[in-house]
Write a structure and sequence with these properties.
Elements (H helix, E strand, L loop, with lengths): L2 H15 L1 H13 L7 H9 L8 E8 L8 H23 L4 E8 L2 E7 L6 H19 L8 E4 L3 E2 L4 H18 L7 H6 L4 H14 L3 H18 L4 H18 L6 H16 L6 H40 L6 H8 L3 H12 L3 H19 L4 H7 L5 H12 L3 H7 L1
């Protein structure tokens, strides 16, 4: 290779190495209004081959429930891995609809640039965005302590309109967060002004009940019925009609294939009979909030049992396959859940981080081999699932306070 070839290849290799960082920086600049016509932006569009892809796009913004601030190198590394898994989950959810680029705007806000085929009309694209948002909501349900909030911006014609789509999505997101709404998903529906209070509340109640969140559901019903009573001047007949909607929503929220369905259905039937004899409007709130507590309790009991079964499956797999490569992604795929949800339920049930549990199992087996065999430290590490000797030594010492060699000598 001559000097001229060497010089020309160096920048290309650097661009390839830092491609993810450059793409994130580039898209953030477009989102925040940096002119597309700036020479460096034009060069990046050409270099990354984005001319056709950015001809028609829409911006999606997801508000993820704020995670605890990581402290210590281990927790920071764990937080980094989970953040990467959430990014991959978002991209995977979009795969059947649109090609997409995703990035973290801040610790709890995920932004996606969705590549829309130019053959799609704006109307069809809007419908597809609505379906995608519903799909993502279902995919991410139960992954976090509370439901993520999803907002889709307007369809943009060219990279110069990406900022507008982003601002529209951000406006819708803020509106939904402020009002605790799950829908609408698209900015177009939001601007139509067709948002129904009772519909949104019923949809939100459904999600609370399915997650067993009785306190949130009770607070919502208390506010909802208080407002209804105020508008109806306390008329029992009108409050009864609203209470029937709530009762129907509670019943519809139950999954018919769940063990809690029969018990909860009976409680709902009893509450329905009691409602017919109510003579004071405030009694509806007392009856329905009590019912919600009982229904959510039954769902929580069933949910806890299901989580224990899933975690038992994970621990059994880890104990049987500790000597193989095991990743959080593999374990999540085995359960059919996201990495974040898998990690969370494991810690919820066992009180331990899933990766530290794997390390502890491997360390226990390594202790036995160090004492009972003549295998070298490297061989022991390989036998319990470590590809790198240094990783084995570091994890072993972190748990025991000794290196494998020191442990062998002391025993």
């Amino acid at each position: 290779m001559n000097k001229k070839q060497s010089k020309s290849s160096a920048p290309d290799s650097l661009l390839t190495m830092y491609r993810p960082v450059l793409l994130k920086d580039f898209f953030l600049r477009l989102l925040y209004g940096d002119p597309v016509t700036k020479p460096e932006n034009e060069e990046l569009i050409q270099y990354f081959g984005l001319e056709e892809k950015l001809a028609k796009t829409a911006v999606a913004v997801l508000r993820i429930p704020t995670p605890p601030t990581p402290s210590g190198s281990f927790h920071k590394e764990m937080h980094r891995r989970i953040s990467e898994e959430i990014l991959m989950d978002a991209k995977k959810s979009c795969a059947d609809y649109f090609e997409s680029f995703w990035l973290w705007e801040n610790i709890n806000t995920l932004v996606g640039i969705l590549i829309i085929p130019t053959v799609l009309t704006n109307g069809i694209a809007a419908v597809s965005l609505e379906k995608l948002a519903e799909h993502m909501q279902e995919e991410m349900e139960g992954t976090f302590e509370s439901s993520p909030v999803i907002a889709m911006g307007t369809v943009s014609a060219g990279p110069q309109e990406i900022q507008t789509s982003y601002e529209n999505a951000a406006e819708l997101l803020d509106y939904k967060v402020l009002n605790h709404f799950v829908t609408p998903y698209t900015y177009a529906d939001y601007k139509k002004g067709e948002i129904q209070f009772d519909y949104d509340r019923q949809l939100l109640l459904t999600r609370y009940i399915r997650l067993g969140k009785s306190r949130e559901a009770q607070e919502m019903i208390d506010v909802y019925l208080s407002m209804s009573a105020s508008k109806a001047n306390g008329a029992v007949e009108e409050i009864y009609a609203e209470a029937e909607k709530i009762l129907s929503t509670i019943r519809a929220a139950l999954r018919t294939d769940s063990e809690a369905f029969e018990k909860a259905s009976f409680m709902i039937d009893v509450a329905g009979d009691q409602m017919r004899s109510i003579s004071q409007s405030y009694m509806f709130t007392a009856l329905l909030t009590s019912l919600i507590e009982e229904v959510c309790s039954a769902i929580q009991i069933e949910s806890a049992a299901q989580k224990r079964q899933k975690v038992d499956r994970l621990t059994k797999y880890i104990n049987q396959n500790f000597n193989r490569s095991i990743s959080l992604s593999d374990l999540a795929d085995m359960l059919g859940h996201s990495a974040g949800y898998t990690s969370r339920i494991f810690k919820e049930i066992t009180g331990r981080d899933i990766l530290s549990y794997i390390s502890s199992i491997r360390t226990d087996h390594a202790k036995t081999l160090l004492i009972s065999s003549d295998m070298s430290v490297a061989e022991v590490g390989f036998s319990v699932g470590y590809d790198q000797q240094q990783t084995f030594i570091r994890n072993f010492k972190k748990i025991t306070g000794l290196t494998p060699g020191e442990y062998r000598k002391s025993n």
